[in-house]
Every structure is written in structure tokens, then in C-alpha cells.
User: What shape does this take?
Amino acid sequence: MENLISLVNKIQRACTALGDHGEQSALPTLWDELPAIAVVGGQSSGKSSVLESVVGKDFLPRGSGIVTRRPLVLQLHRIDEGREYAEFLHLPRKRFTDFAAVRQEISDETDRETGRSKQVSTVPIHLSIYSPNVVNLTLIDLPGLTKVAIDGQHESIVQDIENMVRSFIEKPNCIILAISPANQDLATSDAIKISREVDPRGERTFGVLTKIDLMDNGTDAVDILEGKSYKLQFPWIGVVNRSQADINKSVDMIAARRREREYFSNSPEYKHLAHRMGSEHLGKMLSKHLETVIKSRIPGLQSLISKTIAELESELSRLGKPIASDAGGKLYMIMEICRGFDQIFKEHLDGVRPGGDRVYNVFDAQLPAALKRLQFDKQLSMENVRKIITEADGYQPHLIAPEQGYRRLIESSLVTVRGPAEAAVDAVHAILKDLVHKAVNETMELKQYPSLRVEVTNAACESLDRMKDKSKRATLQLVDMESGYLTVEFFRKLPQDIEKGGNPTHSLFDRYNDAYLRRIGTTVLSYVNMVVASLRNSIPKSIVYCQVREAKRSLLDYFFADLGKKETKQLGSMLDEDPAIMQRRANLAQRLELYRSAQSEIDAVAWAK
Assistant: This one.
């Protein structure tokens, strides 16, 4: 059972080392879940003397006013033999064998945290004492409750101390050791008053009565010790501490314990209670009870720790990795984030994530609809055909077929295809830019670094702009190529008509009769429709090749090339994470370390059992 108290001691020390003092914060606290015994009492209750009697050593600062201004986590470790010594958590490699030096270090460490302003702090001091004269036990000595502030202290200190004490003892895992002097009315006891507020049934309160030997003649504390005056679930324990004269004479603690036993054994009023009186019995009883409480809390503690570890790991994963300090580490980190973004962008195009289907919709719906809206009939109206044919002939009418007229009619019709072609390029460009923004928003790491987010977004959009320009040139070249070189086979397959050229003896206008011009218009329209059908298939290929394929292949190539030329400071400026997030990650990492350490310690004890 003793290793259970040692287990809690280790976890408590880890809590303090990693900043978990049980205060209200945005982080989960393990400290509040650990069973502990908090020592509560007024300034003149004899609280320090009780602790020193349990330890068997003079080690606590003494003086007037508020001496204890920080919680003191006192961990007692029983050793079989050897010299007694003490260790502080904040001085891990230093052993104290002189307990007067321990007292001085408690005062000095208190001043380091609070200054010499006599204010209080909730940050605990951890003191471990190893001795053959102690039982395995952990106690938390809290500042003594007071009713007035002394010189040099703020008026709020009375309430500050009460709030601190309350914050410890109101937790359901806290065992309250309420110290009350027997020579004062129990109804005015500060310890009983505040204990009753947080534990009205007395289910986790141990009452300790001090200064029994200083009661007025003719009075005794039997009714209190027997639980008749104020009943608690656990029996009251009376102690007789050293007097101030004994303290001044440095009376040995072992001798003081012997005199305490003799006092209860020889006093007629207390003889029947002597077996459960005294500081020795108090220490053993508290040790046994603490072990029992810890044992009952272990399963729940294991479950809580496992759940909290999962929550901490999840949040740390969401916050991302911390920033590397060297240039190589920063460059690698930026590259990895960019690769993650690039992968998400590709997933949108490939259908793993939504959005890529919109590109196909441009080719399957928007482009055909735009081509269909082209008014070739208007371009090839009778009047326009006659005008272009006659203008193409010039001063000398054509002999067989109006070839130049055909070419001009086809060119003037196909040039209108440039509009839908450019619109298709622009539509796909807009979709790709939208997918870039979606991928940026879905790349969790980019949310951490606003500057890198802007750099990546700008670099990706600039690449898309270059690809759009290249795609537009290539796509319009397809249209221009169709105008620049006609498909001869189409015209060779047309039915031959010896009259198609008209009779040269007729006037110019007679030769261009309506039937003849209508036939030319029909032929040109058939050819243009054939070319448009071909472009409907080739324009998407050009756009995919020049924009979609290139975006998947080299979206950030220019950015990566430029990245390699940047210095450490420039790289660092991109990783300008919010300081609050950086601090949150560091705090979470520390707290995760604490919970994993606690899990390991508890599992080791569980397996040993």
C-alpha cells in the first residue's frame, strides 16, 4: 500500500514541475484529481506545531503575522535506516540534513515567488523528508486563516487566503485536516467554519484539537474528542504540542512525543481515549486513510488520464507541429505544408474532394452552349454572302468557283469561335483559382501561418495566370489554324456543277443569282459546322493540357524555386504563427507529458500489484 502514496507524490511533483497547480485555466488539470490532505487552521491554532510533531523535526518558519504564504506540499518518506534529510523540488540535486536550513529555504523560496511584500501565492513549494521516524504521508500546509491584515499587506489578503484555502478543500478529492485550539470556543474555529461550508456532513474532514494542556482549570475537551460537541464521520484526535518555552529550548521532538503520550495516559479525563490521541497516532491514521482513498480513486484516475491524453493529442494534432529553429528545418516545414496543400488541390481535381466536376461541366455544357449561340446564319445571310463574294472577286470576276470568297466567308465565321474558346479558358481558370482557395482553407497548417497562407495563395494564383495565358494562346491557335488552312477533302467531295461559275457573258449581278449564293452559304455553313464540331473536342484537350494538367504538375514550382533562395529570417517571416497558438501548443505539450508520466507511473503500480 505504501507505494500508492509514493505514486501520488511522484505525480504531484510532476504537476508542479510542469505548471499544473490546480488553478482555473484552459488546460485540463491532474492536480485536482489527486487525493490529498490539506491542513487548515487559524494563525494561532497550532497548525505548524502539529505538522512538526508528525514529522518529528523543527523545519517550518515561525514568526508573527502570516508566515505561510504559499502552499507547502510536504511529502514524508519512511526509510529503514540512515540519516534524516530533506529535498526541495526546485533544488533537485541538493540534500538538506540541517533542518534549520530547510526552514530558511522555505522562507527564501516564498520570497522568490511573492517578493517581500508579504502577499500570498497559490504556486506550491514541494518538500520531501526522508526519515525512519515518519510514516509515508503527504500533507499540504495552507496559509493560516486570518481576520486582519498586518502592516505591509493589502487589505484583500484576508479574503485572498480564504479563497486559496477554499479552492483546495472544496475539491471532492481533498481530505481536510481541520486544526482547532482547545482553549478557544469551537464555534469560533476558523478551520471548522470553512470545513463545514465545503463538507457539511463531515465525510472528508478530520478534526484535530490542539492546546488541550492549556485549557482553563476545571474544563476539558472530552465532549469534543468523543464527537458530542461537533460530530464528524472520523473520530477527533487530540494532540499536545511543545510549548513556546520548549521550542525556544529546542526540546527534542522524540522526547516531546513521549511526554505527549504520558499526558494522555496519565490524565483521568483522557485516559480512556489515549489509544487514539497524539501526533504519532494522527500520522499513522492519516497515512492509512490516504492509502485507502488513493486505492479507491485509481480506476477512475486511469480512465480520466487515458481520456485526457486522447483529447490533448487530438488538439496538438490540430494545432500542428512547432516551428523549427534552423533554416533547413523551416524550409522543410514550409515544403511539407505546401505539399499537403498541393495534394488537397489535386484531390479536388481528381474527384477525391468536390469541385473537379465543374471543369468537365465547362466542356460538356458551357462551351457547347456558347458555340451553339454563334449566329452563323446571320453571318451567311444572302446579303452578306453576296457582299463578301463580290468584294473578294474585285475587278475581275471568278471563273470557276469564288475561292477567295469561300475563304473570307469561312474566316469571318470561324473568327467568332474565338469568343467561346476564350470564355472556356477563363471559366476553367476561375474554377482552378476557386479550388486553390478551397485547398488553402482545407490545409490545416496554413491556418497557423497567415503570411505563408498569403504567399502560397498568391504563388498558386500567379501560376494559374501564367497557365491561363499559355492556354489562351494555344486554344486560339487551334481556331486560327482552322482558318489558316482549310480541309480540301471537304470541298472535293461536294457535287460538281458546271454552271456554278455562271455564264461569263452575263452581267456581274446576273451571275450571282440567289440560288447560286444560297448554295455557297449552305456549303460554307456545312464546313464551319464541321470545324466547330472538331473544335468542340480539341479546345477542351488544349485547356486540360495547358491548365489542368500543368496545375497538377507544377502549381508551386516557381514558388519552390524562389523559396530555396530565401534566408532564415525570410523563411521565419512566413511562419509567423499567432503567439497565443504557440503558447497553447507549448502548454498542451507540457500537460501531455505530465499525463503520460502519470499514466506510466499508475500502470507500473497496477502491474506490480
Summary: The radius of gyration is 46 Å.
